[in-house]
Design goal:
The protein is mainly alpha-helical and 468 residues long. The chain contains eleven helices and five strands. The strands form two sheets. Strands 2-1-5 form a three-stranded antiparallel sheet. It has a two-stranded antiparallel sheet with strand order 3-4. The two termini are 29 Å apart. The structure holds fe (ii) ion (2 copies). One fe (ii) ion binds next to helix 3.
């Protein structure tokens, strides 16, 4: 498949809609400005071995080559249209999917799209300083791959806003470049996206846990009755898979390094690696922050979105029943100082249903890390996910205190429990982060990956300086 020579690579026949094309071509320099201002700090002239999406064909969409990041071809790619796709759930089940936005869902869809879109540039901003302390060239390349693809995801969402939401959509697209992660007056929409990610342990935890929330949100939107949104998110998911791989294997390599030192009778902290207990605290922090992104346990919004055919369940198309009517979801919620069973109509529990899938997926990764521990010769120690009531800021558990087993505790007990990394510990982790730019070398706190990218060896020169 030849690479398109258009200014904006796309498979949406952009040149046939001159108005839209012009509007996006006007947005493009603002995007590049934004990238230069708050994208990766430094490395803009480096040659990075990147994957670029050039089509959506299963065996040819990814093209690998050295690219300078500002020259990355950010494009608009939707999965091809299925003839006569029908909506697969909710009250509108069986009706033809919408090619335009139905008036009555305009506000909801705009809000859904803007909220998703906002996370994409936000994460690039959060991670902008990481290049300077990369643990290896392999990791540096992966960081930049994640960053340029989050940029492409922003393009994907901005296309929807421009194409389907008229003037409001164009204004939203402009504002996506104006908000800033962590800014006091124009912060990003969701809280987890306003915390800086200024060391690599947090980066791996973020791509493991927080990006994985994105996977489940995108998967739910991939079922949407609004067909362009469904087709956009389906293609985004293929890129997202790599981000999750970076996170899951990144944490795995940290665990492996720590385990190998422990098995050799050494103290990881003295060897410049992360102590086992601190890895657990980071898991506690990032898992709980990411759980909040799914929204409240009981939500009338979630029920409305499902009923209207806007947002389905994870792999809705593989479920047997698609109306979720007259069914109950049983959950335990805190009430008057104790936990009580509550029966919630299934539609109102859709956030929790999606969270269930997410928790299962996270548990699978933790099981894998525990195998790594075992293989390295560490016995009797296991990593774990904290209970989903632990450290929540959204839903019925917000403002209350629970231990990692989900038992209610007092604020005092919670503080003494020391289940989260302290400010000192986070500062100490930063002191481990010495950059490693030598081919094939790894920082002291991480094991090498099992294999390289695109069939290349681990010691491949994934990032070359400008002069090379
Ligand atoms: Fe993304
Ligand atoms: Fe991502």
């Amino acid at each position: 498949m030849a690479q398109s020579l258009e200014t904006i690579p796309n498979n949406v026949d952009l040149s046939s809609d001159r108005r839209l094309q012009r509007a996006l071509e006007q947005w493009q320099p603002n995007f590049l400005e934004w990238w230069k201002e708050v994208g990766p700090d430094g490395f803009q002239g480096h040659h990075v071995y990147l994957r670029t999406a050039i089509s959506v064909e299963a065996n040819g969409w990814a093209h690998f080559d050295y690219v300078k990041m500002p020259d990355y071809r950010w494009g608009i790619f939707l999965e091809p249209k299925e003839k006569e796709r029908l909506i697969g759930f909710g009250d509108v089940i069986g009706q033809p999917a919408w090619e335009e936005v139905p008036g009555e869902h305009r506000n909801s869809l705009r809000r859904i799209i803007v909220t998703q879109a906002d996370t994409e540039p936000a994460s690039v901003e959060q991670q902008r300083l990481l290049g300077k302390t990369c643990p290896s060239l392999y990791d540096l390349r992966n960081l930049f791959q994640v960053n340029v693809e989050e940029g492409r995801h922003l393009w994907a969402m901005v296309y929807l806003l421009h194409r389907f939401f008229g003037r409001d959509g164009r204004e939203e697209a402009d504002e996506l470049l104006q908000r800033r992660s962590g800014s006091a007056d124009k912060p990003r929409i969701l809280n987890a996206f306003n915390e800086p990610i200024d060391e690599w342990l947090s980066f791996f935890m973020f791509t493991m846990f927080t990006d994985r929330d994105g996977k489940y949100q995108l998967a739910a939107l991939a079922q949407s009755g609004f067909d362009p949104l469904a087709r956009t998110t389906r293609f985004m998911l293929t890129e997202e898979a790599h981000h999750l791989f970076v996170g899951e294997t990144g944490v795995d390599r940290v665990v492996q390094r720590t385990a190998e030192l422990m098995a050799a009778g050494k103290d990881p902290a003295k060897e410049g690696a992360v102590p086992f207990a601190l890895i657990q605290k980071y898991i506690n922090l990032w898992f709980s922050l990411s759980l909040d992104l799914f929204g409240g346990e009981v939500s009338s919004n979630a029920a409305d979105f499902f009923a209207a055919g806007l947002k389905g369940r994870f792999r809705e198309d593989q479920l047997e029943e698609h109306k979720a009517m007259g069914q109950i979801y049983q959950m335990e919620v805190p009430e008057g100082g104790k936990l009580v069973e509550q029966q919630v109509p299934l539609r109102n529990a859709m956030n929790e249903v999606l969270r269930d899938e997410y928790v299962k997926d996270c548990q699978r990764a933790v099981d894998r890390w525990n195998k790594t521990l075992e293989k390295a010769g560490v016995s009797g120690l296991k990593l774990r996910l904290p209970h989903r009531r632990f450290h929540r800021a959204v839903g019925p558990c917000a403002g209350l205190f629970f231990d990692p087993d989900g038992r209610m505790v007092t604020e005092d007990e919670s503080r003494r429990g020391a289940w989260l990394p302290t400010a000192e510990e986070r500062a100490w982790v930063k002191t481990l982060m010495h950059p490693v730019f030598e081919r094939g070398k790894m920082a002291s706190w991480i094991a090498p990956p099992a294999k390289g990218i695109d069939g290349k060896p681990v010691d491949f020169e994934y990032v070359k300086p400008p002069s090379a």
